[in-house]
Description:
The protein is α+β, with helices and mostly antiparallel strands. The protein has helices at 45-56, 81-100, 110-114, 129-138, 141-201, 207-220, 224-242, 248-269, 272-292; strands spanning 3-13, 16-27, 32-37, 60-70, 78-79, 120-121. Helix 5 (141-201) packs antiparallel against helix 7 (224-242).
Amino acid sequence: MTGFATETGSFEITSDRYEFSWELRAVNARGLDLRFRLPDGLDGLEAALRRRLSDSVARGSVTLSLRLIRGGGSRGPRLDPAALEAAITLVTAAEAQASERGLLLAPMTAAGLLGLRGVLDTSSDATDPAPLVAALLARLDPLIASFEASRADEGTALRDVLQAQVDAIERLTMEARRMAENRRGNQAEALRAALLRLGEAAPGVEPGRLEQELALIAVRGDLTEELDRLAAHCAAARAHLESAAPVGRKLDFLMQEFNREANTLCSKSQHAPLTRIGLDVKAVIDQMREQVQNVE
Length: 296
């Protein structure tokens, strides 16, 4: 089942400001495939996201993307007073010794002092990712809620489509049952006529044996079991569609059972109108199977 949601916002950790943008999307798939596009350095975030999404999604190809921007804060290059004092002392001593020997040095500028190693610390602080990961996870619930709402809207529409298809199969099954009942008398007359013709063509054959064979033919052509199973499958499909639990795989298996009974109906009917109904049932089943692939 498809779904899409985005969530943006910002937060602060100590003196740093962060802006984030989540994007969560899903397309149809037979199983569950979770994919993540996350910034580097957020140890533990993917594992936590995988657990959260696995609790919400049972089927589909799901991609979660995060865009994270670290904004301005008080962190930046920092002056080391002790290193600056040591640098000034060294520069003063160097200038004094040079002057004693008659050397004139260029005056030291502030930029020159700050450029000396250790005076200005420009290295980035080693940041513990745990607070940042926790802050991001705390802002995940609205994203998942919006995502589930979009999927629920699609699921409601899809359920209506599938229920209409189950209704169609049920109507065709009832029509096939009425037609099978109506033809039962004609079938009996046809079998009796066939029995008389066989008796005339083969007078040496025992009538009991002929009646037994014709009875087996009648049994093999009986569609009661197939029609009963089709009706049972319709009831099972309705129950699945009303369930709040994930039922995509169950419906997928049920489609196979529907198709098996429809094939048997066509092969056993030996009656053009009944065969036509069986083909109509197969057509609805094919349409329903395509929609079931979208169901979680």
